[in-house]
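In response to reviewer comment 3 from the previous cycle, which asked for concrete evidence that the modeling workflow produces usable outputs, we include below a single protein chain processed end to end. The sequence was submitted unchanged, and the resulting structure tokens are shown without manual editing.
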Amino acid sequence: MYCPHSSIGRAGGFGPPGCRFESCWGLFQYPMKLIIVESPKKAKTIKKFLKNRDYFILASKGHIVDLPKKKFGVYLEGNKLKLEYYPIRKSFLNYLKKIKNRIEEFILATDPDREGEFIAWSVVEFLKIKNYSRVRFYEITKSSVLNSLANKEKINLNLVSAQKARRALDRIIGYTLSPILWRKGIGESAGRVQSSALRLIVEKEEEIKNFVPEVFYKLEVDFGDFKAYLVENSKGKFGKERLEFLKNIQNRVENSEFILEKIVKKKKIISKPLPLDTALLQRISFLKYKVSAPLTMKIAQSLYEKGLITYHRTDSFNLSKEFLGKVRNFLKDYFDFPKKIKKKFSQEAHEAIRPVYLKKELKLKGLEDKIYKLIFDYTLSACSKDAVIEETKYFLRPFSAKEISFLAYGERLIFDGFLKFYPFKIKFNELPELREGSLLKPKDVKIIEEKTKPPARYTESTLIKKLKSLGIGRPSTYAEIIKTLLKRNYVSKEKGFLKPTPKGINVVNFLKENFKDLIDLKFTANMEKDLDIIAKGEKDYEKYVIDFWKFLKNLL
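The workflow returned the following structure tokens.
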């Protein structure tokens, strides 16, 4: 149902609940079904697919309740945990209360993750409604929306418990450690995952500071079309001894002819990438366009709400059977696939990030267009065939010192496979075609001096990769973590790299000295695993939070 007086910007939905005029309440000729989503843009997209007057749509605009801003909000009553939630979207709740008795069914279509599940639970809990159902849209297309509405579920209370536990843990840590940092004038806040991420950045800076470069040398023979390097005794020697050793060989071979003694060729598979999960999308967006993680997530949210990509907060690499069939048909002009194929990806409802339609050119602008095309190309790469290269090694010996061997290495692309669509260019160093026994005269023989390089600072991309590899945080939280570190002035950006500020270094040093167990990386990763266990219903969230609270008190 559409109300002529409502505005998506003002009311956040379609139908009488968004109207300022009582005359529109007369539109309720019979009980209606209310679909609740999170964003007005998502509501607008879904509205296109539902022409039936039985439905109207309302957007919550995010969370509707939360722990209080100026109070702790987490309490123990005996052996029971109490979380004191307060409405933060009063106008939205007032709308729902006003029309509650006119609603035939509350259809909770908030995002298909823990936070979306919590929002759905919040509606049920605060309105005390029983006539509800839960639907999950992993993509916002007509077929997906109608299919979900035909297969309604109930709220997954295990996911709600995991979200409650996460929020309680973050509040307990924040309210315990942040005041200590304030009083000592060290920093503004500390957080469960935030502090671990900051620790990684600070410790990387310490590695760089303590790094002592070593000079090393290698002997290069330049044949014009390619270069070869000494392979015997070429590793493990530094300094003057190494330099004198190479000078002696240089003098012996610089005027000598070389014979191409042996050619070794070998085919090598370059595996196609996995489909996109949230962490990988954030990483490749930064690598390709230097777009920050928070901005990438904002753009992905918009693309999802417009019905152009699947849900963007996911750690799944799954692709649906339906999509795999479509994309293989799309790629048939490029590759021959066997009729019967092994399932490369599991086919669950919760998918990787992918385009909804196999159409690259859409009416998008700016970064939205770039990020969409990046997702499109990367998905095609993940569904294509592996690439094949040919590795070539030339083993050469100088006539003046036949006991010495030089090696030239090259690669040649034989079958491009996924590289047809891969959004990053890969260069191959191809050797010229020569035959064994060929005689070659070098153009130059010289000693190359190089220094070992210090480890690089983290970029947003490499920090996200590291956090994920350690099992710290969730893909959907990485953008907010980086945003908070920059906002608190714990970290600054220099040429795209994350560098800790003196304040950030002081915070980490203080926490390591006084709360080393709390910001231990393995400890933080194990907490994330525990939250996953709670989400599966295999651990009681209240007991877990209470036990952690007692542990933290013992550290003080």
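The radius of gyration is 30 Å. We consider this sufficient to address the reviewer's concern, and the full set will be provided in the supplementary archive.
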